[in-house]
Every structure is written in C-alpha cells, then in structure tokens.
Amino acid sequence: MPGSRKSKKKRGQEAAPPVLVARVNEQVALEVYANGKVGTYVDGYAFEIGMISPGSVKRAQGLSEGLPVGSFSPARKPVDREIEALARHLARRGLLEYGLAPPGGDTVVAIEPQIPDYWPQIAKLGNADIVVLSRFAYLRRRGSDLVLESPRSPALFRIADPRIAAALAALTAPQKVSKLRQEKDFVGLALLGLLVDCEILFKAKPKSDGLRPDEGDENLVVWDFHDLLFHTRSTEGRQANLLGGRFPYVGKIAPPPAVRAPWGGTAIDLQGFAGGAASPLAALLRARRSVRDFDEAKPITLAELARFLDAAARVQSKWTTPFDFGDGTVGPDLNYTSRPYPSAGSAYELELYLTVNACEGLARGLYHYDADRHALVPIEARAPELEAQLAAASFAMDTPGLPQILITIAARFNRIAWKYSALAYSLVLKDVGVLLQTLYLAATDVGLGGCAIGTSNIDLFAKMTGQPFHVEGPVGQFALGRGAPEGLGELPAGHR
Q1: Contacts of 454 (CB under 8 A, 6+ apart)
Q2: Mean pLDDT across the stretch 459-470?
Q3: Under a CB-based contact definition with an 8 Å cutoff, are residues 102 and 108 in contact?
Q4: CA distance 30 to 21
Q5: Rounded to whole angstroms, how far apart are CA atoms 181 and 10?
Q6: Are 192 and 180 contacting, i.e. CB atoms less than 8 angstroms apart?
Q7: 439 contacts: CB under 8 Å, gap ≥ 6
Q8: Do 213 and 220 contact (CB within 8 A), yes or no?
Q9: What confidence tens digit (pLDDT) does each residue in 86-144 have?
Q10: Model pLDDT, residue 10
Q11: pLDDT tens across 270-310, in order?
Q12: What's the mean per-residue pLDDT of the chain?
C-alpha cells in the first residue's frame, strides 16, 4: 500500500548526527537542591560544590543523566554560563565524563577525561581532509569495556558499539573523509573531530603514508610507542588512574618477604673478611637516610646548596668527537660531558629544576640548574603552580610540612633516544636511579637531609616550564633541606 513502506537508509546516506552530552561519571551522585546548593557524593563522602541560582536547578540536575553540551556551551544566556561553570568545575575535579549518542538512543562512545582541564572540542573536518590513526593509539580491554586511548590524548574513549571499533581499525592507513562518509558504518564527523582534537587521529598530508615522520614534531619522532605509554602511565598529570601505595593485593596474595629465601647451596661466609674500620665511602653510605621533615626555623643556605650541586651534578669536563659510522663515513660532531654520576653513553640527558620554598639567600620560585656554568637560572612560574608542586611532594612523602627545596629531575628525551632508540627510556630510568643515590650521598656529606619521591606530575611541569611533556619531562624528584632534629634520627620501618 502507498505510504506503508518503511524508509530505508541508502548506502552513503548519513544518519542523524549523534549528540555530545556531559554527565557525572558512575562513581558520583550529584545532588542539586531547590535552593541552588550543589554537592556530590563520592565513595560515601560528601563534597560541597557551591551555589547556583534557583532558576538553573532543573538544568543542572540534568547532569546526572546527561545534558547536551551544545545546550550550554558556548554560553548564550546567564543560565548557560552558570551551567557551563558548574560543568567545568566538576570536570576539573575529575567527576565528569561525556558521551556520544544518537537522538533518542543509547551512548555509543563514552569519553573519560584523563587530565583535569579537558573539555571536548570537535575539530572541523572537510571532505578533502585525510585522517589516520596515531601510531600511539591502541584499543584494549578494560574489565568488560573496550577502550581506545593514547599517551598523547587528554581523554580515553570507551567504545560501546563494536562496529565503531571495526571502522576505526580501517584508519591504520590514511583515508579521505569524503570516502569515509560513504561507508555503511560511518562513525560520524563528530567522533572523528573529537579523536583529531585528542590526537588519537591526525590529519595527514596528501600522498602521505601516515608513518612516524608525519606525526608531530621532531621530538616526537624519537619516541617509541611503549616508552611514551609507560612514561605517561607511571606518572601523574596525564591519566586518571590512582597512584601511590594503595596495597591493591591485600587479601589476594601474601606479602612478599623482605629478604629472599636462601638458595640450597653451601654458603660461603664473608663476614670474616670485612676487617678494620669502615672507609669514608662506607661510612657515608651507612649514614644515608631518607629525611622527610625539615627544620622550618633554619632553612638551607645558598652556600650549602651550591656545595651540594657542585658535588652531585656539576659538569666536570667537555669534549667533542666526530661520529664514525665504521665504514669510513664521518657524521656530525658529537658533544659529551663528564659529571659526578655515571650516565648511559655519557649522554647526561638529565636536567635539574629546583622549586625553592625556603632557602636563605635565594628567592622563592622555580630555577633551572645550569650544570655547565654552575649557576641557577630563574624561570617565571605562577605561585599556584609552585604551591601545587610543593604540596604534591609533601603528600607523596606523607608529611605535613613542605620541602625546603624540591628538585625535579627532567629528561631531554631526544638526547638519549637519538642514539639508543628502543633502549632509551629504560636507560633514562637507570640514570635517574644512580643520580638519586648521588643526591642522597651529596646531601649526607654536606649535612643536609633528602628524600627521593616516587612520582611527579608531568602535565603540571609542562605548564610551569612551557616545555611539551614529550620534549623535556620529569622522571624523578628529590626533596632537599635541613632535616628537623627528630627527622635525623631513626625512621619507622620502610622509610629509610
């Protein structure tokens, strides 16, 4: 009968575009009261967010189930500005996620921010644009979810529709947008634009193969996938996973013993060979302690800091050698230095940045240690960022006071990757280990206290220095200062 047939989508005819919505994530209960008071419940704890006008209450309540982002951002009315401010506040606290859903349908892609200031943006794409997956992008199973992510991306994408995952897999080779729009299971311009904005996809040039040299700057070229992934997932700043001593395997496996069970062979006793008094080096090694509490009334002096840096990190000599390929071909000249600690291939890719809280003779602020000139160079950094970095170090050490000086060890990744490629990041971490021991011994020798810190915020450091996280980023931290009297004595078990 005429008019009784159901309309069918023709091949290449796009369905209605999905809607981008913002909503609190599954771990959050949002409470918006009639008087405008807003609060959340997370893991059984109540947090007060603030107040909004009573006229915005109903729309704010929509953030529990999902509120179209386009309905309030960009803001056109005063109520839009209130909702956007509330959504951004929730986002900065890691309480918000986003979703793409067809009109009247279920979410097909959920977007989980990995950095506090992520806000979804849809990059504009034309039919002539060519897109390809980043070589850092990967799909994996997380519980019962399929997630698409990248160490470069400020958000990860939870894929609910397997057809989308299959369609994205075709983007391992560059594809023209006009061609993609003709596909039966086209994922839509909105999703493509979100992925481009998050650097999971990137625009390729015509006739490009989309391989390593085509993506990003020359500093990104030297990174292998697994190294950049490990760097971002083993530090703070570019991931939403919880870090620290959380004892996740309590009740699952027994705690491993502090000392390995002995092998069954006949032991050769070495104690009778020690003999005599301990050497100065042995005495220094035995005197080393991790000091977390510092004397607020008596900060470290600039003279002490200078002696410490001279002993631990100053350039001692420099030389230049022409690069020889081994077949008689001579390459560029290679520059080397020698410093008090060993470094793989004499690369000395590590740099010291000092966040000074209290030092007699030195203003509070951020400094770079120029190891060649044995000088401190001030770097302009905002006070809230300095406070955040010092507070994070204090939290990591589980102590109420701030360190007098926080030393951030940053790596110039291209310096070591230029030679070692797949070994590069592994060698960086080894170099950090020997430098930390050197800092400990130098601090002990000068009569100061110090403590290695197991994590650092790579995104915060990038904001403070203006250096992209893949160019020069933190790989270790060390708190330094004059130890409080009680901090120089015996420490609890596990804190040496």
Answers
A1: 244, 396
A2: 95
A3: yes
A4: 16
A5: 12
A6: yes
A7: 312, 313, 407, 450, 452, 478, 480
A8: no
A9: 999 998 888 999 999 988 888 999 999 999 889 999 999 999 999 999 999 999 999 99
A10: 52
A11: 888 877 788 899 889 999 999 999 999 999 999 999 999 99
A12: 90
Structural fold of domain 282-488: NADH Oxidase (3.40.109)
Least confident range from 115-119, 241-245, 381-385: namely 241-245
Give the residue range(s) of CATH 3.40.109.10 domains in the chain: 282-488
Tokens representing 453 are 């810190």
Ramachandran area for residue 374 (φ above 0: left; ψ -120 to 50: alpha; else beta): left
Cβ-Cβ contacts under 8 Å for 30 (sequence gap 6 or more):
24, 38, 39, 40, 61, 63, 64, 90
Residue 485 identity (one-letter amino acid)? P
